[in-house]
Amino acid sequence: MKTKYWEIIALSEGWANYREEYLARMYLGVPNYVGTTNLFLRPYVEMFKKLRAIGCSFTNIEKSLCVNTIVEFRNNLIVKYPNLTTQITNLIPFTGRQPVEPAHTTVMIMIKNGLIIIVALPLFSCAPSQESGVYTLHKILINRTDKDLHYEVETDIDKKIVFVNALDSTSIIFSYATTLDKDIAGLSVRLKKIQTLKETVFNLTDTTKYIYDLPYEIIPQEGINEKDITYGQSLSWSLGENSTDENPVVYSKLNFTDDIVQIMQKDYNMLETFSAYYNK
Questions:
Q1: Are the beta carbons of 83 and 77 closer than 8 angstroms?
Q2: pLDDT per residue as tens digits for the range 179-193
Q3: Where are the domains of the chain?
Q4: Which end of the chain is more exposed for a tag (fewer CB within 10 A), N or C?
Q5: 189, 180, 184, 199: which is closest to 252 by C-alpha?
Q6: pLDDT at res. 120
Q7: φ and ψ of 108, to 5 deg
Q8: What is the C-alpha radius of gyration for the chain, rounded to an integer number of angstroms?
Q9: Contact 226, 194 (CB under 8 A)
């Protein structure tokens, strides 16, 4: 069967956006979060949502997605859920809506010189294209304690620090201007996300610190030990009101409370590192 790349994109991008939407709504306290508003991808996000509602598991959907066409995906699911054949067929009755429909019939009746032009147009329209964009990350620390803090954030593009007074808040802004590559069908833009590699909070009042070194882009990792879990659960994120696919604006917030104070470790080297603070 001939591969239709736009179908692969529809399935993979649709699934990725559905999973992002699901995680945000279920675990991040953003009940109205929308993974994408792209008019081409949105029906596929809704399709996956309905497949989950009738009982198709995440695992079986992902296994069934290892194909090149929507029909193959549908057939794989039916094999796994023969008792849901009718529902699956009703939810995936189409072969998809591709963004550019090659005019094969028209080409056949055109003159030879015109043939080259007409065939070339769909090819060029589906070729990867580039656009400029800016990814902006706001790292916000909300200090709900009576401790003075030193907040240090290291990303894959820069490292920045900021002082946070007791019962105060502040932010660090990272911006990354880049050239975006649209996918082969020109449907959606996947901008390089800024990855947070490590963040360290120094409690200057108590000479303690905590290092959270589980890299993440938007959704923090849960971690495997209780301390990382406590810290990770204190992180939240949201999109800015003016955020777009091409120019995302992400707000990543750390809600610093006594829960984090309790997991911090003593570090007497801070007396030297932050001598200006302690000698004032």
A1: no
A2: 665 554 444 455 677
A3: 5-96, 102-127, 130-278
A4: C
A5: 199
A6: 39
A7: -65, -25
A8: 25
A9: no
CA-nearest of 153, 151, 26, 41 to 96 is 41
Look up residue 278 and give its two tokens: 């302690």
Lookup result for tokens 């649709």: 14
Q: Which two tokens mark 270?
A: 């801070």
β-strands 265-266, 208-212 pairing = antiparallel
